[in-house]
Design brief:
Blueprint (H helix, E strand, L loop, with lengths): L2 H14 L10 E8 L3 H4 L2 E7 L5 E6 L11 E2 L13 E4 L13 E5 L3 H11 L4 E5 L6 E2 L9 H5 L2 H9 L2 H16 L19 E2 L3 H7 L2 E4 L2 E5 L2 E4 L6 E2 L2 E4 L3 E2 L12 E2 L2 E2 L15
Parallel strand pairs: 5-14, 6-7, 6-14, 7-10, 8-9
Antiparallel strand pairs: 1-2, 2-3, 4-15, 11-12, 12-13, 16-17
Family: Belongs to the FMO family.
Keywords: Endoplasmic reticulum, FAD, Flavoprotein, Membrane, Monooxygenase, NADP, Oxidoreductase, Transmembrane, Transmembrane helix
Cofactor: FAD
Length: 285
């Protein structure tokens, strides 16, 4: 579904069910804290700021549901010499259009969905795009066999019957050989990772194959270091000139408005009961 179609659906749903009156738009949550009588009532004190009038108000609620997503903060890696680079460095989160990159040399770091989207979109305007990845990825088109969505193919009973008979690596090899390699030779373009297709989520993109074939996008290993006018990739001795570096390196979680200690992270995972509730607090957050 396209963005404008999703927006239209949500807007029409909210209007038809008369729920817009319960929304406060242009409002930033500044803090969520346990109320003074929390132990007896389980209530929460919420402070918000109107981004137009800058008015700050505080109210008390019986429960709070945080729905901003758990990977909502761009993750920006650092490389040696990065502060010397005279070009532009940004996260794909800030990529709002590709026209500013007309006739530019662009390096995209990361081969997730956002990385491939950034590489494909900017390559239509940029002079050259380099796609930097440490491990590669299995890339799958949205359209699978017989014109059906690929995920429809993956939930067919035949696949699960194969998994009952054959080990996962064997089924993965069949999928790679009979489907992925038919799309384009992933080894030829240095995108194939060292794990089989069912070990990690594959990446969806319909156009990266043609971009690699035409040379509009060139695969590169991880960045070794930055210099003033470009980067040096691992294993290279020559400088690759770059005007822009787009970090498509994922997101991390952060809830700056929550009282400290409410949400805890253990072994790189957020500790929530049923992925929703902090286990040490009343079941109202």
């Amino acid at each position: 579904m396209r963005h404008h179609e999703l927006y239209q659906y949500i807007t029409e749903y909210a209007t038809q069910n008369d729920v817009l009156k319960h929304f406060r738009f242009n409002t930033e949550v500044k803090s969520v804290r346990r109320a003074p009588d929390y132990e007896e009532t389980g209530r929460w004190t919420v402070t918000v700021k109107n981004r137009i009038t800058e008015e700050v108000t505080t109210d008390v609620y019986d429960g709070v549901l945080v729905s901003v997503g758990h990977i909502n903060r761009p993750k920006m890696p650092t490389y040696p010499g990065q502060d010397q680079f005279k070009g532009k460095i940004l996260h794909s989160h800030s990529l709002k259009g590709v026209e500013p990159y007309h006739n530019k040399k662009v390096v995209v770091v990361g081969m997730g969905c956002s990385g491939l989207d950034a590489a494909v979109e900017t390559s239509s305007f940029a002079k050259q795009v380099y796609l930097s990845t440490r491990s590669g990825a299995h890339v799958i088109n949205r359209i699978g066999p017989k014109g059906l969505p690929y995920d429809y193919f993956l939930i067919t009973p035949y696949l699960y019957q194969l998994l009952d008979i054959l080990p996962a690596w064997a089924v993965g090899w069949l999928f790679e050989t009979c489907y992925l390699d038919v799309l384009y030779e992933q080894k030829l373009y240095a995108v194939q990772p060292d794990h089989h297709v069912f070990q990690k989520d594959p990446i969806l993109n319909d156009h990266i194959g043609s971009k690699l074939m035409s040379g509009a996008v060139i695969m590169k290993p991880d960045i070794q270091c930055f210099i003033e006018d470009g980067v040096i990739f691992e294993g290279d001795s020559e400088v690759t000139q770059a005007d822009v570096v787009i970090m498509s390196t994922g997101y991390t979680w952060k809830f700056p408005f929550l009282e400290e200690g409410i949400i805890e992270k253990e072994n790189d995972k957020i500790n929530l009961y049923k992925c929703m509730f902090p286990p040490n607090y009343r079941m109202r957050l």
